[in-house]
UniProtKB/TrEMBL annotation:
<dbReference type="InterPro" id="IPR017896">
    <property type="entry name" value="4Fe4S_Fe-S-bd"/>
</dbReference>
<keyword id="KW-0411">Iron-sulfur</keyword>
<feature type="domain" description="4Fe-4S ferredoxin-type">
    <location>
        <begin position="58"/>
        <end position="87"/>
    </location>
</feature>
<keyword id="KW-0813">Transport</keyword>
<comment type="function">
    <text>Could be a 3Fe-4S cluster-containing protein.</text>
</comment>
<dbReference type="GO" id="GO:0051536">
    <property type="term" value="F:iron-sulfur cluster binding"/>
</dbReference>
<keyword id="KW-0479">Metal-binding</keyword>
<dbReference type="InterPro" id="IPR007859">
    <property type="entry name" value="ETF-QO/FixX_C"/>
</dbReference>
<dbReference type="Pfam" id="PF05187">
    <property type="entry name" value="Fer4_ETF_QO"/>
</dbReference>
<keyword id="KW-0249">Electron transport</keyword>
<protein>
    <recommendedName>
        <fullName>Ferredoxin-like protein</fullName>
    </recommendedName>
</protein>
<comment type="similarity">
    <text>To ferredoxins from P.putida and C.tartarivorum, ferredoxin I from A.vinelandii, ferredoxin II from D.desulfuricans.</text>
</comment>
<dbReference type="InterPro" id="IPR012206">
    <property type="entry name" value="Fd_FixX"/>
</dbReference>
<keyword id="KW-0535">Nitrogen fixation</keyword>
<dbReference type="GO" id="GO:0005506">
    <property type="term" value="F:iron ion binding"/>
</dbReference>
<keyword id="KW-0408">Iron</keyword>
């Protein structure tokens, strides 16, 4: 959450998310993250820090409940290693109108 300190605002304070029981995001091949992705850009470009590197398990962890559906992760991963789709109908970000 360190990068949010620039403004002291957390983007998740401004959206309401209805959390699905099943993740809409997964890592296709965890070994690829460990062995071939030195800088792990997913841990930087996601605006709400859905991805983080767990040094204990040596895996990328995915906190899908934080996703604001910006759609960047399938393009931002240099190895095409993230499977992302919109949450099931009725779940995810609840947009306000009016
Ligand atoms: S950017 Fe892609 S390959 Fe690299 S750590 Fe993240 S998910 Fe794994
Ligand atoms: S779609 Fe956007 S907010 Fe959701 S996990 Fe991917 S980069 Fe993060």
């Amino acid at each position: 959450m360190g990068n949010f300190l620039k403004t002291t605002e957390n983007p998740l304070d401004f959206v309401e998310i209805k959390i699905d029981g099943a993740s809409h995001i997964s890592i296709k091949e965890p070994r690829l993250c460990r062995e071939r992705c030195e800088n792990k850009p997913c841990t930087y470009y996601c605006p709400t820090r859905v991805f983080y590197w767990d040094g204990d398990t040596q895996d990328i962890q995915v906190i899908y409940a934080r996703c604001v559906e910006c759609g960047a992760c399938p393009y931002g991963c240099p190895h095409g290693n993230i499977d992302w789709h919109f949450p099931a109908g009725g779940y995810g970000v609840l947009y306000r109108h009016g």
